[in-house]
């Protein structure tokens, strides 16, 4: 995962074991009390890893709950993001100032078939996608999806808004290792035309995507 984030952000990705729900604070346990076993397993793995990383940073975590949009309200001075997919769980975290948000996403690397493009891709995304060779388009489309997931997480601490797929379009770099996320809407304090930059990395048939958002301009 070298190069996914700069030195200000600590990233840990590890296999999901058999986490123990009873090890979490009761407030966290309540969040998944009615969830299916797979969801409980992922949730416990994410919260356990996040709490361990907070402890290593010298921060005693209160229960890591969630906002109405599903985001974690992190302790003061912390920006972080949790993601999980298949056998992997990951947390990206920073306590550095000068960062507006952190976004992490883990997805299976299998291409995004054209059947699903209308759900995720905007007209701007489609224009960009059609600039790629036809043989690469399903792979690029999957990276567009992953980039939006990570970018939306990174912008959330400032906007406190859950954005639809249509809120950004993604420009994937020719190396398929970098991208620019362009805002298509105002999401105060973000404005139409603002951009976030991120990177991709490959992990055992998965794509890992990282975004660091700068503090938004007032």
Overall description:
With 218 residues, the chain is an alpha+beta fold. It has two domains: 93 residues, 4'-phosphopantetheinyl transferase domain (Ribosomal Protein L22, Chain A); 90 residues, no CATH class. 28% of the residues lie in helices and 26% in strands. It is built from five helices and eight strands; from the N terminus they run βααβββαααββββ. The chain has a five-stranded antiparallel beta sheet with strand order 4-8-7-6-5.
- Mean of the pLDDT scores? 95
Strand content: 25-35%
Q: Order of strands across the widest beta sheet?
A: 4-8-7-6-5
Q: What's the number of extended β-strand segments?
A: 8
Biggest β-sheet: count, sense, barrel? Answer: 5 strands, antiparallel
What number of domains?
2
Note the total helix count. Answer: 5
Determine Rg (CA atoms, Å). 17 Å
Low-confidence stretches: none
Helix content: 25-40%
User: What best-fitting shape do the alpha-carbon axes yield?
Assistant: globular
Specify the CATH architecture of the largest domain.
Alpha-Beta Complex
Oligomer: single chain
Secondary-structure blueprint of this entry?
Layout: E1 10-15, H1 26-31, H2 37-56, E2 79-85, E3 88-94, E4 101-108, H3 117-120, H4 123-129, H5 137-159, E5 168-172, E6 178-183, E7 195-203, E8 206-213
Antiparallel strand pairs: 1-3, 2-3, 4-8, 5-6, 6-7, 7-8
